[in-house]
Amino acid sequence: MVVPSSSTRDEVLKLIDKRDKLDQEMKELFSVLESNHVDMNDSLVDADGYPRNDVDVYQIRNARHKIICLRNDRKALMKQIEDGLTTVHTEMREMQPKLSTPKLPVNTEETNDVEMNYASIAKINLVSSGSPADDARLQLNDEIVEFGTINSSNFKDLSQIGVLVNHSEGKRVPLKVKRADKYLDLVITPRKWSGRGLLGCNIILI
């Protein structure tokens, strides 16, 4: 088994642990907003311009401010994690023994199987800033090839992705997307954030 340097791996694990604690803190702050039946954008003044008396205005403003700060911290942290994972993967590739070049498919049936494994099943037509989709580096017009265990071999409709997302809150879900003529492996973590849903992106059929 090829193992990257322990110092690099340990540093990435520390960053991931820090991110998880930050996510938990944000979750607790969002619960403050939910208990007051407001989100990040609801007005805190009434029709006459006075502070609303049906909510704890100070508590909400304090929670919103902390959430904004934590979201900025999280974005910077995700960049550090991404850079660290890139280093780990680079070290693993450098330590891998050279392998012989794999043989290309020699018949049409094998070629079609390869193509089917990389067939797109859906497309991203909206990514909200600061959302889990944004953190995962998804972009407009990315084509989804695999979403967790869902791919072209078992995909039926978008409701499958919705069910998987709802059962994966707080868990890392691997993605394979096609961007232009390249295939990228990403990871998204469905979670509550300041916007709607657990992803912060809009997925449509191709």
Task: Please specify the SSE layout and strand pairing.
Layout: H1 6-35, H2 57-95, H3 108-117, E1 122-127, H4 132-135, E2 143-147, H5 159-166, E3 173-179, E4 182-188, E5 201-204
Antiparallel strand pairs: 1-2, 1-5, 2-3, 3-4
Helix pairs in contact: 1-2
Domain PDZ: 119-186
Family: Belongs to the proteasome subunit p27 family.
GO cellular component, one term: cytoplasm
Can you tell me about this structure?
There is one protein chain. This protein folds into 2 domains: 8-95; 122-205, PDZ domain (Pdz3 Domain, Roll). Helices cover 44% and strands 14% of the residues. The chain has 5 helices and 5 strands. It has a 5-stranded antiparallel sheet with strand order 4-3-2-1-5. Helix 1 (6-35) runs antiparallel to helix 2. The longest helix has 39 residues, at 57-95.
Strand order of the largest sheet: 4-3-2-1-5
**Cα distance spanning the termini:** 40 Å
Instruction: List segments where confidence is low: pLDDT < 50 over at least 5 consecutive residues.
Output: 98-116
Basic shape = globular
State mean pLDDT (0 to 100 scale): 82
How helix-rich are the residues, as a percent range?
40-55%
Return Rg in Å: 21 Å
Number of domains: 2
- Please report the total strand number as a whole number: 5
Helical stretch count?
5
Features:
206 residues, Pdz3 Domain, 5 helices, 14% strand, 26S proteasome non-ATPase regulatory subunit 9, PSMD9, PDZ_sf, proteasome
